[in-house]
Design goal:
This protein has 214 residues and is mainly alpha-helical. Helices cover 55% and strands 0% of the residues.
């Protein structure tokens, strides 16, 4: 695990949260919007949103029918609008208008599960409470043999047992960067992978990203 971490860190020295934000609230909103979307796509629409809505009160008060078209490009805009408005209202009502900085507080908000909470805690508050497990982390950790599970909560538990706590947030970024740039779903670039000698899945995939039959 230590060698995997070091090699991925060398390959991706700038691995970081790629959702543009300046405050915990902006990161929370951006992370909710990023579900089933891409960080790049979210970053295209958030500058205008963050200029218009600057407080939790602003987000809680914007009508559903007004917010929906503004976030339509990210997909699932109806549910995301409800979650954003609901989370903002809860922040105002129960947390004095400030995004909570605990796992318990964050997952109590509508639309916020562990992955979103981990992103906010690790990147906005510098707290390593867990590892954000997205589709890239699921794929890469499975191929590396770091977990046998497909459920994100179980995968996170497995990773937390082998990765030192102070590296949890950064390791999540490394998995994402590696999943985007090398260990892609289709045609993973095993030849140029920095951890191919440590990966039990290296060179075992066909052109569709499926394991070759032995």
């Amino acid at each position: 695990m230590a060698k995997i971490y070091d090699l991925l860190s060398q390959r991706y020295p700038d691995a970081h949260c790629t959702l543009s934000h300046k405050t915990p609230l902006e990161l929370l909103i951006a992370t909710i919007l990023a579900a089933q979307s891409t960080d790049k796509g979210v970053n295209l629409i958030t500058p205008a949103l963050f200029a218009k809505y600057t407080t939790a009160e602003d987000w809680a008060q914007v009508p559903q029918e007004v917010l929906e078209p503004q976030i339509r490009a990210t997909g699932f805009f109806r549910n995301k609008s409800r979650n954003i408005r609901g989370a903002a209202a809860a922040i105002v009502d129960r947390f004095g208008g400030k995004v909570p900085d605990t796992m318990e507080g964050l997952i109590s908000l509508p639309g916020v599960a562990r992955k979103t909470a981990n992103v906010v805690l690790g990147n906005a508050f510098g707290k390593n409470e867990g590892i954000a497990v997205d589709t890239h982390a699921i794929r890469v950790s499975g191929r590396l043999g770091l977990t046998q599970h497909t459920d994100p909560v179980k995968i996170e538990k497995d990773l937390m047992e082998v990765v030192p706590r102070e590296r949890w947030t950064h390791f999540g970024h490394l998995l994402v960067f590696h999943g985007r740039n090398c260990c892609i779903a289709r045609r993973p670039d095993c030849e140029h992978c920095p951890v191919n000698q440590l990966c039990p899945s290296a060179f075992t995939f066909d052109g569709a990203g499926k394991e070759k039959k032995q």
